[in-house]
Write a structure and sequence with these properties.
Layout (H helix, E strand, L loop, with lengths): L2 H13 L12 H9 L5 H10 L4 H8 L6 H10 L2 H10 L2 E4 L13 E4 H6 L3 H10 L2 H7 L5 H8 L6 H9 L5 H8 L8 H9 L5 H7 L5 H7 L7 H15 L4
Parallel strand pairs: 1-2
Helix pairs in contact: 1-8, 4-6, 5-6, 8-10, 10-12, 11-13, 13-14, 15-16
């Protein structure tokens, strides 16, 4: 089973709730009727947003719902394209803000939808779904979650780029579980930039860092052997590997 699908199964088993209708198998007409019905609950609208997070026409209909919860609106903003963010800005008369700004009306300004604040209010199920399918802003937020399930779900997101992986590999403020997952991924570790980031990261498990030593350049080995930010066994291995390389044995 592909990793992305594995996490989708985990998500479904752990957080599945019974809805009054079968959202996933509705016809387009029936689904639109549900969305446009003013009596449809915010909970049902949230589930529709999660199931159809890649259908921009449905997301546009959801954005127009007056009883759509703001956490669901933030979910949509972090999952969908820039066009949907612009649609939210235009139709909801608000700015989508990824930052520490108050989510309130001030004077004649637009209301600000602070997605960081909204994410903090999301349920575990919403966060995992967002981690699995969200855009770059969402991935950058959720990779820092204390929950292992949420953080590792980000790494299973098919939209994840190698550039983000390199950035995560450098980050000493992420959990060791995340760093280990990156180090154990054969595809990602083909990139020298990822290897370089991992061996320099104090959060990288020693066993993983040691396994990459033969691939590290002499210049970086010289830096590593003097670094006080990484564990002593890694510094020692860097020194020994450097000696071998200089002697033509590495």
């Amino acid at each position: 089973m592909e990793e992305h699908n594995y996490w989708k199964v985990i998500f479904a088993k752990r957080f599945k709730r019974q809805l009054p209708i079968d959202i996933e198998h509705c016809s387009p007409i029936a689904l639109r009727s549900i969305i446009l019905d003013v009596h449809t609950s915010a909970h049902v609208l949230d589930k529709i947003a999660q199931v159809y997070s890649d259908d921009e026409e449905i997301l546009q209909d959801l954005v127009l719902c007056p009883n759509l919860d703001e956490t669901t609106l933030a979910f949509i903003a972090l999952t969908a394209s820039d066009e949907i963010k612009e649609f939210i800005t235009a139709k909801r008369v608000m700015d989508v803000v990824v930052g520490e700004h108050p989510a309130e009306e001030t004077g004649g300004k637009k209301k600000k939808l602070n997605v960081i604040q909204m994410v903090s209010r999301m349920t575990m199920a919403q966060k995992i779904k967002l981690a699995l399918s969200g855009a770059k802003d969402a991935r950058g937020l959720l990779i820092r979650e204390s929950s292992k399930l949420i953080a590792l779900s980000v790494l299973a997101n098919p939209r994840l780029t190698i550039g983000e992986v390199e950035f995560f590999a450098k980050s000493s403020n992420l959990s060791e579980d995340v760093i280990r997952k990156i180090g154990n991924n054969a595809e990602w570790s083909k990139k020298y930039s990822v290897v370089s980031a991992l061996v320099s990261n104090p959060k990288t498990p020693v066993s993983i860092a040691l396994g990459f030593m033969p691939r590290v350049s002499e210049r970086e080995l010289a830096i590593l052997e003097k670094s006080r930010n990484i564990p002593a066994p890694v510094r020692t291995a860097a020194r020994n590997t450097l000696v071998k390389k200089k002697l033509g044995k590495g």
